[in-house]
Structure prediction request, 589 residues.
Amino acid sequence: MSHVDSFDHKPELDRHHGQSLKTDETPDIFFGRVGLLRRSDWAFKQRGESGLWISDMFPHIAEMADEMTLLRSLVSDSANHTPALFLLNSGFGANGFPSTGSWISYGLGNESQSLPTFVVLPDGRGGPNGGASNWSNGFLPAQHQGIVFRGGTQPVRDLFPPTKQPRGADAAVQRFLSTLNRQRTASSADGLVDARIRSYELAARMQASVPEVSDLTGEPRHIQDMYGLNDKLTADCGRRCLLGRRLLEKGVRFVQIYSGGPIAGSPRASWDAHESVRQNHGFEASRIDRPVAALLRDLRQRGMLDDTLVLFTTEFGRTPFAQSAANAVGPGRDHNRYGFSGWLAGGGVRRGASYGSTDDVGWKAAEHPMPWHDFHATLLHLLGVDHTELTYYHNGIQRRLTNVHGEVHTGVFA
Amino acid sequence: MSPRRVEAEVVRDAILSVSGQLNPERGGPGFEDVSITPNNGTVYYEARDRDDPAVHRRTVYRFTPRGGRTAILDTFDCPDPSTAAPTRNVTTTPLQALSLLNNPFVLRMATRMAERIAGRVGEDVNSQVIRAWQLAIQRDPDPREQRLSIELVRQHGLATLCRGLFNINDFVIIE
Prediction:
């Protein structure tokens, strides 16, 4: 997502519109075409009592400015979508490492007996680059993997048989199993056997709780409208934001909502605004602006925001210069890993504040650069976990979400 | 030997074997039970249920793309191929139970196993039950197991018993 068009106000960029970036460096971008500096496509305004500068790209989210701490100095090691997504999710650019949600599941445990700890809600248009690797448990035990909730009658894979079974057969099999699995008394396999008995009981409970939590029809009309469920443009994200709130209410620890499907393809179904920021971000933002604002508002009005942490992130920003010939100001922007924006809201975070900054034109992080390891360390701290203590022994190493890095940025704390 | 739960691959192979569907072909190119969607430089793999003898080979011959595990492999702790795993985790989860109860592959194999047994021993429920236990659990049922099994077959059919046997402790735990 382009920070200079959304959350990072750069008057100097406006002023230098049409000029070239003053640098001897060859920027590490994706297509390698460095055009002239390009001003924001959206007007910025000061919002709320805090006066945070947020652009008109997100008019609804902007109304919630007083709830959030803007992060304006995020940095990443990769300007390539897939490794950049892995870095955001797991702290490593290669896959095979546990994602943040899995670490949190491992660290905080499960509050719900009948729902998974870590739920993933991908964009209705498809999964992100890297697919399920983004919510992998890596080397952590399998119960910590992200579980995808889809729409429809089978919200979770294998929740019910795909074809109708003989009447009463499902319940009869469950009874058969519980009777037989219980009949054995003392045995060296007791631990395993007990765990299996419990798992079948929990499975039966999930068959009730998953459809129940996924059914949004019981939500009052004004809530459905607030999330944009009745508007084709916002329905996909709105449904997932509302489902996210319901899952959190039921004790799910970590819900991850994606905006943007596969990166490639035409027309684009993601935030990859190489061709035109105005067109692409305008459309993508209009899909999520109302639902995301509604989620914040809803969490606040239910008193949930005090102990819920909301993270709004992107794998990287976009360049302040256009992606075009060196003497032109084209309409698109390339990937920018050197500095970009996100925000935090809720539990333990300052309200109506901004943290860090980029240089005058928004190219590189200047004040308080925050690589993902720092972001993760800070996030874990906010959840009450010391990132150096949350470890899992694997292949000879006590592994951490933050590897051997991670600085907690106390400046974002309330 | 201390009791252990068999690995994901063994669960799948055993289901294929006892339902008479295991394709014993050795060597050569692996089988693919995933959909492959190239998208401008990125390739998406998604597990796809295929009812085809060509994919009924031992799981060791499975083409294992990253992120493309089937539910059985996934829930029974088969590591994603992007992860080096010197030892495997052994977890027991409700999602595992759901997959072993409801996965389309498992249900289809339960039906095949029932057909196999009926083809061998005919309509006599008592003989069907004994044969089912011999195939799946490698022993005769004790009188109580026999009684419960007969009841299940009479009310819900032989395939339902086979589905049940894939889920009992003795199918996945070795002592």
